[in-house]
Amino acid sequence: MGRSNASRSHAATPVWEVTAATTLRNRYMAIFELQLEAVRRPLLASALAGLQDTSLHITAGHHDKLGLAIPREKIPALIALYGGALFTLVTAPPGSVSRDVVQSVVQVIVYGCALHDENPE
Q: Does the first or last residue of the chain, that is N or C, have fewer Cβ atoms within 10 Å of its Cβ?
């Protein structure tokens, strides 16, 4: 079965996820603004759509390197969850997002928030 909840709480959050939500927050806010603008501009939407396939492959490789057994068919949902969480984190008041907050969000996205009994009867 998967890792226990105890070992999950000690899983390392990759540095890029922390910097995306903290020190690089302006960069990611600009990306979200660009995505919103694409709703009004079909040519921009078309260009950004081409990046989506690339992001799926990059994400799969990233999870493989971390040893996470994420089924390929779940990666689009995982990207959607991460994008929503990142939007929430980068639009939070400056200084309110810490490494611990980011780590908690990442762990919930990857492992879920339900408690799992490792030895169900």
A: C
